[in-house]
Each structure stands twice: as structure tokens, then as C-alpha cells.
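User: If you would, consider this record:
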Amino acid sequence: MQQFDYNEVLETILAKDSRFPREAYQFVREGLDYTQHKMARMSGTKEPRHVTGRELTDGMRQYALETYGPMARLLLDEWGIHATEDFGEIVFNLVENNLLAKTKNDSRDDFAGGFDFDEAFTAPYQPLAKREKTPAKPPKAKRAK
């Protein structure tokens, strides 16, 4: 089995595709580890298993919120990650360079339309809308003529 130097291969990826910085790839790797470990705990096993694109996008959402809280959206924007499809682009750059594995059923389409970034990363930290409490006005009494 051939050994890869992760950082060396990542440098090659970054030279070919400058859409995402090193930090974006690091985030996706950490999000994958987080998701695999979470899925293993949920299933009662100790070994990480393959996760689908949908599972991974949800796991990365949870990881970003837990790790970065209200700063998650700002950091993801800084790293060029604006939609779940961007997660897929990063994952498949890693797959195509043998840093991640995929099954025959995995595709970039698995990452399409996963969730809305505003709803996921901005809305939880917005103040609740103040509801206007206007008491109902009683109907005006008619004057007797």
C-alpha cells in the first residue's frame, strides 16, 4: 500500500484548485472525523463507518455550530464555503487525490441542496422577532341621534 504525505498532496490540490484555502480542507477533515465518531456512538459501535454525503453535510453543520458557534458562518464564508455543494467539491478533491475513499454510489450530487446556510448558521443567533402586542380595539359605539 502506497503511503501519502497528506500535506504534500494537499499542496497539489491547492495548486490545481484555488477556490478553497487549506483551512477549508482542514474543516472538512475535522467535520468528517466528528461525523464518523458521532455515527459510531449512535450505532453503538467503536469503529467509524463510511458516511453518506447527506450524513456528512449534517455532521459538518453540527460540528461548525458546536465548534465555532455564532462565528461559524463568518469562517465558512472566509474559507469560500457558501453552500453544501462546496463541501462536496472539497470532499471530491480529496477523493480524486486518494486522501479520502468513496463508494460507487457516492457522488457530488449527494451534497446538493443539503441545507440553507442562513437558516443553519445565522438564524440560531438572531434575536427572536418582537411580536407586536396590540390589544384589539373595541368597536366604536354609535351615538344615538
Summary: The two ends are 101 Å apart (CA to CA). Residues 130-134 have pLDDT under 50 and may be disordered. Residues 6-125 form one domain. The chain has six helices and no strands.
